[in-house]
């Protein structure tokens, strides 16, 4: 998910994109109003994910989000989990044409055949990666030496050299729908980088960058 998801042009002018909520906590505007987005921001986004199934779920959801708003995916997340066997790669890798037809007829999820097929392909590729240490370790191996320190949501990049490299590496491993922007969003979501804006109550919450120095 891009941190600029849901930010209007009016919000995009000169301010930091941060607001103080009724609870006194500082959040970006995209996480300040919708209760579902706020809960996701406060409890999950940017927290480390280091297990295979968790990483596969995040990768799959980021792929389904392409071209859509992240809140759309969050609202469908439980349905996604139900129909994709809770994103167990072993089970999803066995999905066939009957499963694709089942998924394409389920209005509770994003019915995009290319993305559904990509999820199955990526599950199969995830199994293949186990011999190389597994999906989670593979993705985390692209952690940069420094993390961004954005002073406003408008300073948060949408790609990085590491997300470009991760995209290329995953494609070589047989993954699909893993473009550089999608992989940057994944890296944000699972704590590999910290793009919480300086001043947000969640900045540094992952603990990943506690002992790293970043440029001012």
Structural features, described:
The protein is an all-alpha fold. It has a domain at 52-131: Hypothetical protein, domain 2 (Endonuclease III, domain 1, Orthogonal Bundle). It contains 9 helices and 2 strands; from the N terminus they run ββααααααααα. The chain has helices at residues 35-43, 52-65, 70-83, 89-92, 97-104, 113-128, 135-140, 161-172, 180-189, and strands at residues 18-20, 26-28. Strands 1-2 form a two-stranded antiparallel sheet. α2 (52-65) runs antiparallel to α6 (113-128), α2 (52-65) packs across α9 (180-189) and α8 (161-172) packs across α9 (180-189). The chain is globular. The model is unreliable at 6-14 (pLDDT under 50). InterPro entries: Adenine_glyco, DNA-3mA_glycosylase, DNA_glycosylase. This is DNA-3-methyladenine glycosylase I. Pfam families: Adenine_glyco (PF03352).
Present the secondary structure layout.
Elements: E1 18-20, E2 26-28, H1 35-43, H2 52-65, H3 70-83, H4 89-92, H5 97-104, H6 113-128, H7 135-140, H8 161-172, H9 180-189
Antiparallel strand pairs: 1-2
Helix pairs in contact: 2-3, 2-6, 2-9, 8-9
Q: Notable features of this structure?
A:
216 residues; mainly alpha; Endonuclease III, domain 1; two-stranded antiparallel sheet; 9 helices; 2 strands; 3% strand; globular
